[in-house]
Amino acid sequence: MHRFKLPPQILRLILVAMAIVGSYLVARSFLVPPSFGEYGWYRGDALKLIAARDPVFAGKQACDECHSDILHKLAKDAHKTLSCEGCHGVSREHCDNPDILPVKATGSHCIRCHEANLARPAWLKQIVVKDHYGPKCTECHLPHQPTQSP
Amino acid sequence: MMNEVTNSVVEALPQFQGYVYPNEANFHPVWSTLIVVYPYITGLVAGAFIMASLVRVFDVKALAPVYRLSMLTALAFLLCATLPLLCHLGHPERCYEIMMTPHMTSPMAIFGFVYAWYLMAVLLLELWFDYRQDFVKWSKTTAGFKGFLYRVLTLGVTDVSEKSVRLDMKMEWILSIVGIPSAFLLHGYVGFIFGSIKANPWWGNVLMPIMFILSAIVSGIALCVFNYIVLNWIRRRPLDMRCLDAMAMFLFYALVMDAVVEGLDVLHRGYAAEEGFAVLQTMIHEKLFYTLNIGQVGVGTLVPLLLLGLLQVLPRRVPEATRRVMIFCSGAMILLGVLMMRWNVVMGGQFFSKSFRGVMSYKMEFAGQEGWLISAVIMCLPFIILTVLVKLFLSERLQPCEHVLEKSSKA
User: Which residues of B73-88 are buried (b: 16+ CB within 10 A; e: fewer)?
Assistant: First the structure.
């Protein structure tokens, strides 16, 4: 009886394919982190790493310790619900050591909320910056008491 | 101090008109030039492969001289197909993680499987079977690194008996047959990724995979035309006009089909006029006017249709030199037009608000992660890889084996 023999090129390809799959499996056993899949399709240890990071925000209460006069004014006006660090930048380090200034947030804080956009609620005061006076908002507006003039 | 902070109106405002949700008024769309390049490159791969399959599966002998060039073109572009995605995501050094923990829950994750199948199981295998005897022959006649490379590529199989060669050819034929649906899958899948986003009327469309496949075939053949003419021009060799005319003919037919299906899509959208149609009209008339009407429709479709159509109607009246120029220009214009089409699809879907009542603007950056420079570099990379592949596997100094020569001479 004639014995079936795999052609040499097919046999070689099967061996190469097996080598590729084998090295993939070996690589996988080394490269997949041990905690992968512990809670879901991600590295379980990542949660501990994230939890161990130091918070950068101090919170409004921390600001109140030294700047209670400003917070007092703020509480009486339209911006009472805003967080200090939303405009002044993250301040945890500043809180621990007043010599370190808060990390300046870049960008325009006023127009982030007040640039005209039809999708915003009508009660929110809105302007079209390019049609509005001047580059300095604080020439005419007090951020802590927006309903009053300087 | 406080005033300085409060008054630092440094950011230019995002430009938008009409009703745009605040979270849509960003400085940049989420996807930009890199994501435009991604479907463009995969389309070129699929098109170049389908062009090569015409030789193997449908036995179009006139195209035999360009078979290997098409396959190498497909390989060079496929090797770069995932680069735009990796650059867009950031941290390209983490790319292996996708392969280490594969999963099936997102359309983009499944693209990894489609890509791996196409590269490993179709393209490389078919190329290997096609080149196997040449590797054996060249490994004996070439010295140095090249000779070593050919020896490695034989995988140690030196059998070039008639029976063995027949098996190689049969395997190539089978792989080509498997390859055609695989090429359709590769690029149809990219179309599906866009077409399945049902919340976006510009993308969510069942015709999207079909339009992607047809435009891929068109762009792939155009790329092969471009590469064939440029390669022969560099080598100062005369063009095989029979081959070039055949490519122009297939390019014309593919372009007709592509134009018809895309026209059908426009007609269907116009007649159905579903929710969001008004904003799509604004896109066509204003936002995408130059890239869609002039780029995609005019330069990329109508002018090449006219030029190639003329060549089909009056094949003998046009002198050879003029024919060459016409075919080359059509190929180049189609390549540009299909790039515009990808731009229109990818960027068009991000230029209007989900409220359908407002539009956003986008100013393309030069440098940076989403700048067009990196996209241009990624577009050049396949041509550099192709140059290396052509030097190694399509060199004028290395003659292919007899069965390859026979196929070409019969043509």
Answer: bbbbbbbbbbbbbbbb
Integer Cα distance of B252 and B80 in angstroms: 27
Beta bridge mates, B359: B17, B352
Distance CA A49, CA B1 (A): 35
**Beta carbons of B164 and A41 less than 8 Å apart:** no
**A-B C-beta contacts closer than 8 Å:** 92
Average pLDDT value for residue range B45-52: 93
Q: Which residues of B134-143 are buried (b: 16+ CB within 10 A; e: fewer)?
A: bbbbbbeebe
Domain boundaries, chain A: 10-51, 60-139
- The verdict on a CB contact (< 8 Å) between B20 and A27 is no
User: How far apart are the C-alpha atoms of B74 and B120, rounded to whole Å?
Assistant: 13
3-state SS, residue A9? helix
Q: Check CB contact under 8 Å for B5 and A87.
A: yes
Predicted pLDDT at A140: 86
> Which tokens go with B56?
């193997």
Cα within 13 Å of Cα(A99), Cβ side: 0
**pLDDT confidence of B1, banded at 50, 70, 90?**
very low
Q: What pLDDT digit, counting tens, does each position of B277-295 carry?
A: 888 898 899 889 999 999 9
CA distances from B139 to B131, B146, B155 (A): 12, 8, 11
Phi, psi of B106 (to 5 degrees): -135, 145
Among candidates B3, B96, B155 on the partner chain, residue whose Cβ is nearest the Cβ of A16: B155
H-state helical runs in B13-123: 33-56, 67-79, 83-89, 96-100, 107-116
Looking at the complex, report in whole angstroms how far the Cα of residue A52 sits from the nearest Cα belonging to chain B: 23
Partner residue facing B9 (CB), from A12, A32, A111: A111
Closest chain B CA to residue A15: B155
**Does position B409 have pLDDT exceeding 80, yes or no?**
no
Contacts of B378 (CB under 8 A, 6+ apart): B34, B37, B41, B80, B83, B84, B87
- Rounded Cα distance, B337 and B331, in Å: 10
> Which chain B residues touch A if contact means CB-CB below 8 Å?
1-3, 5-11, 13, 16, 18-22, 25, 96-97, 99-101, 103, 105, 120, 125, 128-129, 132, 155-157, 159, 164, 167-168, 355, 357-358
